[in-house]
Prior knowledge:
By secondary structure, the chain is α/β, with parallel strands linked by helices. It has helices at about 1-5, 10-20, 30-40, 50-60, 85-95, 130-135, 160-170, 190-195, 220-235, 330-350, 355-365, 380-395, 415-420, 435-445, 455-465, and strands at about 70, 75-80, 110-115, 120-125, 145-150, 175-180, 210-215, 240, 245-255, 260-270, 270-275, 275-280, 285-290, 295-300, 300, 305-310, 320-325, 370-380, 400-410, 425-430, 450. It has 15 helices and 21 strands.
Amino acid sequence: DLANRMSERAVDIVKFFMKQGQILKPGDVIDADTAELVASEFGHTVRRVAEADIEEGVFKEPDKPEDLEPRPPVVTIMGHVDHGKTSLLDAIRNANVVSGEAGGITQHIGAYQVEKNGSKITFIDTPGHAAFTAMRARGAQATDIAVLVVAADDSVMPQTIESINHAKAAGVPIIVAINKIDKPSADPQKVRTQLLQHEVFVESMGGEVLDVEVSATKGTNLDKLLEAILLQAELLDLKANPDRTSEGVVIEAQLEKGRGAVATVLVQTGTLMIGDIVVAGNEWGRVRAIVDDRGGQLKEAGPSTPVEVLGLQGAPRAGDRFATVASEARAREITEYRQRLARDKAVAKHAGQRGSLEQMMSQLQTSGLKEFPLVIKGDVQGSVEAIIAALEKLGTDEVRARIVHSGAGAITESDVSLAETSGAAMIGFNVRANPQARAAAEAAGIEIRYYNIIYNLVDDVKAAMSGLLSPER
Ligand code: GDP
């Protein structure tokens, strides 16, 4: 690899090492210092592309407070299946289409923007927490506010709870939309009371979480919901500097016939312009066109604007960071580096699994964190509660178990991604993981621990936790 990059013959490099008394075998890896030495011996100038340099080069210096301007909030709608997430997204969009603009034809690009009282709000058009966590798993946080949809004719359901936990783990404030209030069987008060058990305290229950009763199908109180979002956004004081080169996150991307790689990106800071050289994940390209959620061609896009970008050489992945860079050469350098890094990681993953209790323990030890995060799924709610009670008893002044998420039922992909993003151990009691969850765990290098005896489970966690205690104890 090194020979290749220097355009030298591999045999000459092997010879050089032999002269130094080192015999290289195929598959041997040399460290960066050695590589640098070799490169300069061969008369090459070395420029180190370290992670730090990449971050510095791509994600530039922080903004000065005076350069910051208010930006629209970015909202994700979450909640249980069939509680009306999609209906709500559609209703909000349809009620707020700017008529006449590009024929008023909306196209689904993965996110859209509406205007309320002169203020804009950006909605991520993929309901549910799957996209939300997929992004977080890549280290990108696109969402400022989570709207939690709960059907008033139903109740708080498993995915409602998951959504709450995902939002909380991400530190994203929740607004509750109590939906389907047009139904005769609607009981919004029951929803509010049930939410208490999951530590979501709405205003009328003495808390600070905003809640709005809506009907997505009848279009009731959508205005109020948008107002609540704007109010919450005001509290968050969301700002960005539009006068710099752009950075943001990829919402979705695919290869399209006749258009090439099409990526929907959310600009988070700066202004994206036609002609910009951008890097997105492992891909790069020159921005050929910028298209908004109504099919309109734009010349530029500022903070919190979702747009389709044409011109990338390949499709990046949802959740990848993107940024405008200074030159084509720089873009190549960064993407080549990242592709190499991805290969190295793939190799490293085979070598050792992340996410086992032991490894997590040693990770936590070095980070000095004295909480032991866990995601627990069990066959019935009763056993889950018993396990949590037993684990909570293990807590001391120095270390305690933190239940990121728990519930009854099989281990799902969502559980695994929550474990991944929150660095938690994944535990199943008398339940198994479904195939998708198993595949996700495999891909993320997360070990799922299965138990059928509570004592064994608690004992293992206790052992792992005691490893977290300071040596003098
Ligand atoms: P999602 O799975 O959360 O995206 O839910 P959908 O938006 O697909 O809605 C599930 C079902 O509930 C559909 O049949 C909708 O028509 C219905 N629905 C959604 N919102 C309302 C509402 O406000 N009132 C009534 N009566 N039905 C609704």
